[in-house]
Amino acid sequence: MARVSISKKHPDVYKKVAELSKAAEEAALAAGLGPRLIELVKIRVSQMNGCAFCCRLHTRDALKLGETADRLAVLPVWWESQYFSSTEQAALGLAEEATRLPGRRDRHWDSGALTDEQISAVTWVALVMNTWNRVAVLSEYPVAP
Question: How far, rounded to the nearest angstrom, does the alpha carbon of residue 9 sit from its chain's CA centroid?
Answer without folding.
Answer: 25
